[in-house]
Design goal:
By secondary structure, this protein is mostly beta strands. The protein has a domain of 96 residues. 14% of the residues lie in helices and 42% in strands. The strands form eight sheets. Strands 1, 4, 5, 6, 15, 16 and 17 form a seven-stranded antiparallel sheet that branches. Strands 19-20-23-18-26 form a five-stranded antiparallel sheet. The longest helix has 14 residues. About 2% of the residues have low confidence. The structure holds zinc ion.
Length: 322
């Protein structure tokens, strides 16, 4: 098993929803959840005849291919979720980052301090969980380009409108690029493949080119980690010889529908710490590779994947080009 860096470029608009209401697709996501990316890769390999039904069943029972969430690449820079110690000044339009100072306090077992008002006097607004990327030397809030439309669906094969397929959607624009980490078993090699993400792939939505390349070795794991995905509130995580004991998680809790799990349509509601949260580690042992994509959590006879992707602070800033 090794970690690869994935780049995914949308070739058609993608309908990836954060939340569904009775009126249809409302809020488009600004990311591709790790479980969805994992499912997209498995489905593509199955379609290409490289994985059989038995292989897919084995992945459901005992996952070996794992993916971190995919976040947008904005003007060539990888984005990542903001920590609870990143703030925004509405007046100066600037971002204040006190994550390193806060992490040092957390590592010493001290309580981090709330931010002071900005130098201009304006109170600072928390950005925890919003996406940030570097633009020049500065960190900026970023998102994905979306559009809302009532549209006829386009048949993928013929490129023509499909009769009776009028619906309302909000989609992530074609051309949007995402990055992620993928933990690849031996049978997944670097290279390119066509995958489908989100809803409506049979109607032509969400087709993307996925490129996999070997990723550099992870940086050493210190005592404070940044969650690149939502984090399940468990004290101990263990998967295939990689174990992690958390002393504390610093970040807001959200209720989230754990969706898109491969096989059986299993979608429990879980309470998780928001992406970008900081985790204080008591102990980490075993290979570090799986930590970047997140240790799966057993739930009934299925696994929750796409959670608990954790990286050292230095690796987080490496992603952000700092
Ligand atoms: Zn200001």
């Amino acid at each position: 098993m090794r970690v690869m860096e994935a780049r995914l470029v949308l070739k058609s608009p993608a309908v990836v929803v954060q939340r569904r209401t009775e009126r249809g697709f409302v809020k488009p996501a600004d990311w591709i959840p790790g479980s969805m990316l994992r499912g997209a890769i498995l489905t593509a390999l199955h379609r290409a005849g490289k994985l059989g039904a038995g292989d897919l069943e084995r992945e459901r029972v005992e996952p070996s291919l794992l993916a971190s969430p995919a976040y947008p690449v904005v003007k060539g820079s990888r984005s990542a979720p903001a920590t609870p110690f990143m703030f925004y000044c509405r007046r100066c339009k600037s971002l204040v980052d006190i994550t390193r100072e806060a992490a040092e306090k957390l590592a010493r077992g001290e309580e981090p301090e709330p931010p002071l008002p900005h130098e201009c006097g304006e109170a600072l607004k928390p950005m925890h969980g919003a996406l940030v990327a570097r633009e020049g030397r500065e960190l900026r809030r970023v998102g994905v380009e979306t559009f809302r439309s009532t549209s006829v669906a386009i048949g993928r094969e013929r490129g023509s409108a499909v009769r009776g397929m009028l619906f309302d959607y909000e989609a992530i624009a074609e051309g949007t690029e995402f990055w992620a980490w993928v933990l690849a078993p031996d049978w997944l090699q670097p290279g390119s493949m066509e995958v489908a993400v989100g809803r409506g792939s049979s109607r032509g939505f969400g087709w993307a080119e996925l490129r996999l390349e070997p990723a550099p070795q992870p940086r050493p794991y210190g005592s404070v980690l940044v969650a690149m995905s939502p984090l399940t509130p468990l004290k101990r995580l263990e998967w295939r010889g990689c174990a992690l004991t958390l002393a504390r998680v610093y970040g807001r809790l959200d209720r989230l529908q754990a969706g898109w799990e491969y096989g059986r349509g299993f979608r429990p509601i879980v309470e998780v710490a928001r992406r970008g949260s900081l985790a204080v580690v008591e102990e980490v042992s075993g290979p570090a590779e799986p930590l970047r994509v997140g240790l799966p959590v057993k739930a009934g006879d299925s696994w929750l994947t796409g959670f608990n992707a954790l990286v050292p602070l230095e690796e987080y800033y490496g992603v952000l080009g700092g």
